[in-house]
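G., the chain you wanted modeled:
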Amino acid sequence: MSLHTRFLSRRGTAAALTACAAALATAGVAWSATTTAPATPASKTASAATVTRASASPRACTVHDLYLSMGRKDAAAGSLYWPIRFTNTSTTSCALRGYPGVSVLDTAHRQIGPAATRSGRSYATVTLTPAHSAYAVVRTTNGPVGGPCLRTGTYLRVYPPASYDAVLVPAPWTICSGRFQVGPVNVEGAF
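Predicted structure as tokens:
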């Protein structure tokens, strides 16, 4: 079968190619068509690639990308707040979104009390470029206000958001009055 397209319009050419493909498929022959776009200047091609990379979402941070440490404790209105710092130590950007999992451990790595509950604050995706940090703040009461305090732990076990791997951070922490909460990861260090 031959196809003469010299006198066909674009619409006619497309219809003829579709008919030809259907005839070949009926005959059991595999067929594919490729089209080529007009050549573009190198500067336009590079520019489009940059836009594509800039609009792409970064990958999720893993424990291998992060160094976790504790910020400075702060007390206010009967509560004790302590920020957990997530620093990107990799060479590429990565993202954190949501709440970390946090629990208190003793020196033998046994959990003390329940894991932290979520504060309920809304959150957004935080993109960490290399060497930059974000925070999630843990909170308990400042002493036995409304209930006893548990024994003081030696570590916080922290699961970054969307991670099944944890990091042990040296942090003497005491859960008091049955209150132990964590806020979402954010750049402001807000609870």
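The first strand starts at residue 66 and ends at 70.

Shout if anything looks off.
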